Amino acid sequence: MNKFLMGLKGALIGLANVVPGVSGGTLAIIFDIYKRLIDAFDMFFKHPVKALLSIWEILVGILMGIFAGFLVLSYGYEAFPLATTLAFIGLLIGGIKPLFELVKPHTNLVNIYIFVGGFLFVVLLPLINGMTGIYNDWVYYLILALLGILVAFSVVAPGISGSILLMVLGYYSHLLFMGKSVFENVIQFNFSEITQYILPIGILGISFLVGLILSVKLTKWIMIKFEIGFYAAVLGMLVASPISILIMLNKETPLSGFQTGEWIVGGLLLVIGFLAAFWVIKFSENEENKTSE
Prior knowledge:
The protein has helices at residues 2-16, 24-30, 34-42, 48-79, 81-94, 96-103, 109-124, 137-156, 162-169, 172-187, 195-225, 227-252, 260-292. The longest helix has 33 residues, at 260-292. The chain has one domain. By secondary structure, the protein is mainly α. It contains 13 helices and no strands.
């Protein structure tokens, strides 16, 4: 059951990394597996087999979540953007309490400033006007390499949404379309159509690994030196995330355009998302208590 739970957490984290405005790193902290992931990534190049075995169930869940995320974004999000968005907002809200209880005993002026800084960063980021992407020549491949590094940092750094960064830089829709095309061609066995994506996906993958190594090292150092400040920043970004997500949705589809029925369904999914996060956290705490006893 424990491995199934870890896989479920991983799936939610993977799914969150694709949804605009949602940070997979934040969910990893909410579900109390962030440090475990950081430690595993950190020792990967010294003991790769040991590292993979220590988190294999989480990695399988993350891959399944990312895979499902492309379907959710390509079909579900396009058809029901408000309902999908509110479901993930419910997940985030469900995780505020344990993180708040962690930071609360260490409340001081410095941590309050850090909290406010994290909050403002996440709220202001989606307000930046998106740039126009470049999709040909060597500059395109150079940009893809930089995007891979940035996305890796956003995956590791909690509170920062890689999807928002990609939207601001003008490549979110392009990469989503690329992932969707590869998926559909694999299902249809049209492997000849996939060859055009091998180079860009390869560049993204290699640069992502480089960024992952750098960001894991940096994040682990910050967590050791400034642990409470780190979680205060994450709490600020977590509290701001629902606002940021709704700002992103409003840019795509004005909130005033949704019908009452959509808001009702979305509200129900928000509650379900909240309860899902609450259940996963509560069940994990009970399992830990049983283990310690």
